[in-house]
What we know:
Blueprint: H1 5-13, H2 20-31, H3 37-50, H4 54-67, E1 78-82, H5 93-103, E2 108-112, H6 122-128, H7 140-147, E3 149-153, H8 154-157, H9 162-171, H10 177-180, E4 191-195, H11 202-211, E5 216-221, E6 234-240, E7 243-249, H12 269-280, H13 286-301, H14 308-320, H15 323-336
Parallel strand pairs: 1-4, 2-3, 4-5
Antiparallel strand pairs: 5-6, 6-7
Helix pairs in contact: 1-3, 2-4, 3-9, 4-11, 5-12, 5-13, 5-14, 5-15, 6-12, 7-15, 13-14
Amino acid sequence: MSANLKPTIARLALGETLTADQAEDAFDVxxxxxxTPAQIGALLMAMRIRGETVSEITGAVRAMRARxxxxxxxxxxxxxxxxxxxxxxxLNVSSAVTFVIAGCGIPVAKHGNRALSSRTGGADVLTxxxxxxxxxxxxxxxxxxxxxCVFLFAPRHHPSMRHAAGPRVELGTRTIFNLLGPLxxxxxxxxxxxxxxxxxxxxxxxxxxxxxxxxxxxxxxxMGLDELTVAGPNQVTALSDGSITSFVVxxxxxxxxxxxxxxxxxxxxxxxxxxxxxxxxxxxxxYRDTVLLNAAxxxxxxxxxxxxREGVSLARNSIASGAAFAALETLRRVSAVTVA
Length: 340
């Protein structure tokens, strides 16, 4: 049992908040395996009930980053991912966006996992697409250089998270850990498009990324989804050069027509993989338009587009030219040949 967490839990029980340094120390204890399940559960629920703060999330991310297995990435690399937890069961949007953006010449270090709260996670659909997720970690930087994109499978890069796995499952509810994954990219990217399961988190996540020294980000939520949607209005909080702004994005702002969320309902990994390949090969429809909208936002974050319409144009060209599908084919090939 860790005596180090007892004073922290006592402070949290009184409704007090932690500084970033205090939170970093507490989560380092958890990730070192020194905390008991009861201590972990108590700390997580005390924060959840009171409401996590920017300082606490920042400290927890620092602890997580300190213990992760990192890789090198180009300075302009971007991550596109979501927190999960929306329970919508839609097609894999950020995975498709990865290849579209890579086809635009923007390096993508995508951080993700298998399905936890959804039917098919990013790792599930990429496996179905023939991408090898077990390529040696030492080869991932070169894969990123050659394919323009790489998938960073979270459990391989964050082994210390296993110490909190049991209490998280037993609690069975959202905790601060649901927010940490998208904030701890193993390639240490400074730019990211991140979807959140609730609009309440867009500002908090953006403020955390600012505190962590990121250059640019869009934190988005679209009508219950942890991504931008063409079904209606989207809540966005953007970080750019230290400045944070919040606004609403409509699909019409990007020159796209509306479609209901039901039009991008997903299935198992094989079903989603087939739909994703079809989008990269130019098949029109609600899924493609959703991918275009999110890719447009990612291109703004990457500094390649000035607005959503320009970003949609870049994304359309990536698909029409075959560059997006070529990125998938290259990732398949180079990840396979690096099997140890």
